[in-house]
Every structure is written in structure tokens, then in C-alpha cells.
Amino acid sequence: MKTTLLHIKNMVCPRCIDAVRNLLEQAGYRPTDVTLGQAQLDTSTPADPVSVAPMLREAGFDVIMGRADQLTEQIKSALVEYLEHLRTARMPLTTSAFLTDRFAATYSHLSKVFSRTANLTIEKYLIRLKIERVKEMLSYNEMTLSEIAEQMRYSSGQHLSNQFRQVTGRSVSEFRRDLMPRRLSLDQLV
Predict the structure, then answer these.
(1) Which residues are paired to 34 by β-bridges?
(2) Are both 175 and 130 inside the same structural domain?
(3) I need a labelling partner for 43 at 20 to 30 A (CA). Which of 104, 132, 149, 165 fits?
(4) One domain, residues 39 and 89
């Protein structure tokens, strides 16, 4: 089955977009638009997802075949954008409002599909995502825990600290003392 739209797993940043675009171009395809989780190809160079998958897999990506898997990856990409929305919006939307606006579907539907395919709730995935962003901020050592908590929309530094320990099994202080703190790439969260 030839297609002009590929759904691609593990695209989590602008460098991933560049990498996928370069891989497709090197393989002779002409991508017209590459975004997080998707690559639109010129209609004159449609691709068979099965034949493109090994090339992408070698670089740490994968082609998503099923609709539920595609929607789950789109939700993950949207949640990465939601973190930026949380950080910058004066009055940020709730997670459910953000996702229902983005996908024009009920949160209940999105949540069921996500939970079934990712074996994790949207809320738990978002918490993991937030904690990875907190690890990043902590490793720069430029902000206090209270400032990070405020930026990430936690009710307090203590709330952030408690959630950090729940997710990582370590305290924030232990993480800061570690000379080489372990962070996860976003594609390892599920």
C-alpha cells in the first residue's frame, strides 16, 4: 500500500524532524512537510510504510501502522507542546481542554485510546513528561525548586518534590548531587 502520509513514532523534537526529512530525502523520497509524528510526501514519491520502516528504525524511529497507535503518538506530541503552553500561557488550558481542542474529540475517547495503546494514562504520561523537563531544568542549576515548580504549574515546591520522588525514586537533592544525573529521552517514557 503506497501512501503520501507516514505516521512516525519517536519524533520528539525539532532535530528529529530534520533527521526524518534527511533520511527520506537520502532514500529518494520528497517530503513536503515533516512535523512531530508525521511526514507528508510529494504525491509523485509515495512510500510503502513497510519498506520505509527499516530505514527509520535504524535511526531510532518507527512507522506506525494502526489508527490507535497513530492517535497515541499524536497525543504524545501534543502533550510535549502542552508543556510549553503550561510554561508560557497566562491562563493555561487544562490538559483535557487542550487535547479536545487539538483533536476535536472527547477527552474520554482520547483517554481510552491512549490508555489501551500506551498501557499508561494520559495523566501519568504527562507527569513523566513534566518530571523529565524538571530534570532538565535542575541539571542547568539556574533556577530554584520553587521557580521550577511555578514554571511547571505545580501548586508548590513541596508538591513537585513529592511527585519527583514518586516518579524517580529519588529526592530532588539526591538528583542535584549526582554528577551525572540520568535523564530519559522522551521516547523512553512509555
Answers:
(1) 39
(2) yes
(3) 104
(4) no
Angstrom distance (rounded) from CA 39 to CA 30: 10
Cα distances from 163 to residues 105, 123, 149, 156, in angstroms, run 29, 13, 11, 11
DSSP 27: T
- Looking at residue 72, its amino acid is T
**Residue 188 domain flag:** no
pLDDT digits (tens, 9 = 90+) for 3-42: 788 999 888 888 999 999 999 999 999 999 999 889 999 8
Who contacts 173 (Cβ-Cβ below 8 Å, separation ≥6)?
Answer: none
CA distance 16 to 18: 5
DSSP string across 28-66: T--EEEEETTEEEEPTTS-B-HHHHHHHHHHTT-EE--S
- Residue in this structure with the C-alpha cell 542535584, named with its chain if needed: 176
Instruction: Tell whether pTM > 0.70.
Output: yes
Whether 129 contacts 186, CB under 8 Å:
yes
Q: Are residues 55 and 71 in the same domain?
A: no
Give the whole-angstrom CA distance, residue 76 versus residue 48. Answer: 24
